[in-house]
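Notes on consecutive records. When two proteins share a document, each keeps its own sequence and its own token line. Never mix them. Below: protein one.
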Amino acid sequence: MKTEQRRLSTAEERRETVLRTAIGAFAARGYFGTTTTEVAKAAGISQAYVYRLFPNKEALFTAVVEYCFVQVRAAFERGAAEATGSTPEAVLESMGDAYARLISDNDLLLVQLHAQAAAIAEPAVRDAVRAGYARTVEYVRGACGGSAQQIQQFFATGMLCHLIVAIDATAVDAPWTRTLSAGITHY
């Protein structure tokens, strides 16, 4: 009779679990309102173990921000691969659709919004957000071959999507919400 041995998680697997769990915790209460105790409890580990994986809350949050940018990049890559044409417009439209699907997971969207707000006061968060946008903008530029103006418009529309989703603008039937939401796909 064979006895099954319990397989222990590696530190990297635990780190990944903590990051995925931390997204939900930080989405709900933001950088300033979330404690490492809450993240540890949600991940089913001790706070001490969180500190073994991340030296402090700032490092945990910046890792979450970077993790979110990885998810955005993956969505853009899927969108670029699924584009129906090779023009900048076709690639950007497909990447935008992939992003709209991604942010239908409100946790990822909320972490992005909280990160932008925390970036004002927290230099490490600001650096993580800057680095994430730098990589993302350069990926979009290379993937679509568009002009600086097209890429700026693409990101501006993404920010508008954040606003529309964050305030649930589609739940309000008014001229101003129709104006903001015109031509923007929601999932």
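Protein two starts on the next line and is unrelated to protein one.
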Amino acid sequence: MATAQIKPASQFPTIELTAGIYLVKAEVAANEPDREQGLMYRTQLPANQGMLFIFEQPAGHCFWMKNTFLPLSIAFLADDGTIVNIERMAPQTESNHCPTQPVRFALEMNQGWFSEKGIKPGMRIAGLPQPR
């Protein structure tokens, strides 16, 4: 059985988001293969860059860090960009990290990025694509 091709970072579409005064360049994972790969196998993630996961429907979409070498923080986002909750995720673990309410968006950044910038639940990430 063939394993799925690992998609290089340069092949993910990108979107610009804002978190307060900070600009974020986010790669977009909006289909099942891209969401499954996420940031796995990466050895670095530049400052102010991350990955935005987009799901078709709001749900309790949980994440884990299997085959992910970078320590990350994930913000689960309501449709209007409000941060529902933020979780710290340790590399190469299989613990589930889940939103506290159903969401369609999640933004992964280097671990500690949100806290270093003073970004907390209840604040808003702007620039999310609108539902169709």
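For the record: The first strand starts at residue 14 and ends at 19.
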